[in-house]
Amino acid sequence: MTSSALGRDFRLLWSAAVSSRFGDALRTPALALLAATVTRDPRIIAAVTVAGQLPPLLFGLLGGVYADRWDRRRTMALVDGVRAAVVAALAVVVALNRVSVLVLLVAAFLLATLGTLFDSASFALLPALVPADALPRANGRLQAGSAVAGGFLGAPAAGVLFAVAPALPFALDAVTFGAAALLVLALSPPPAITPATARRRGSVWSEIVEGLRWLRAHRTLWRVTLLTAASNLAISGIMAVLVLYALDVLRVPPAGYGLFAAAAIVGGVAGALGAGRLAARLGTVPALRAVLAVETMALTGFALARHPVSGGIALAVFAAGTVAWNSLWASYGQRQVPSDLLGRVGAAQRMVGLLTAPLGAALAGLAAAAYGTVPVAGAAAGTFALVTVAAWRTLRPAASAVSSRAG
Prior knowledge:
By secondary structure, the protein is an all-alpha fold.
């Protein structure tokens, strides 16, 4: 089924998401290349990366509050408009050869901070655009489109454009943000809030707590969120050493690493497109359990592989499972959470799910330095096995119909 079957508003949202993802895929590697032209100090280059990773942890919950307080359509458009201005300013600075470490740090931090508000509003807006039973399909198509735009189009083009003119990837990124803002503004306006549906707002902190309490009180959603955090520990670890594992263990030629990494993108697209069908056939909760079992088998195969082809196939299957899990997880939350809490609960889901990622990468780096990359892959597979056992023991299909509210 195509995105057109999901309606006009979904087509507009899909187009906006794909446009933004294409621009992100141009900007992210270009920012790293730009940092390398300013300094060769790996600590400073790493600091630019960290500056783009901190805002979701620092401001994610705050973004969820305002995604629930404000008109989500206008919020997304405004955020993309501001991001377009920020990246356009960066392009001008680059063109004038006035780039400094401070400029890079501020740009990375500001763009990621704005992204937390956009992500919360987008997550909360989707259930208003498509029927509840179409959410797994809609989320899958959003992820598939983003993967193609980013992995197959934007990322390969970034280096070429940077070589032509360092400011070019940033200028095009500004255009994609502007286009996305216009597409979002074309969405149908939300229904007017009536006195009967309006709710009294508390302080920002009280609303953050309300979202966290709601998530914690919903047994299935909370368990799925914890399982996501545990699996992200392993995913972050394996991704941190992927290039070394591919080159040293699987014997992937350096010139062929891009093709090897593309296997993950192909698998991710397949997983995204298949998530809706899997949920329709099995139900969302059983599908989540099945996906974890497939991921565990794929990651075990990856840890045992010693050839580029077998390793690439295992990586593709694992990526398919990972993207399918993300689509199903998001869809389940969007169906369970009340509309006026979607921004906050969705932000809480993402924050808890991502908390383990830095730890996984750090542990993998230390373990690889001491023992090599093979034990890291084995530990990641073992972690997924434990997560899978926990999921099959704690996630009950009947629980998918149960929703509880924090008092």
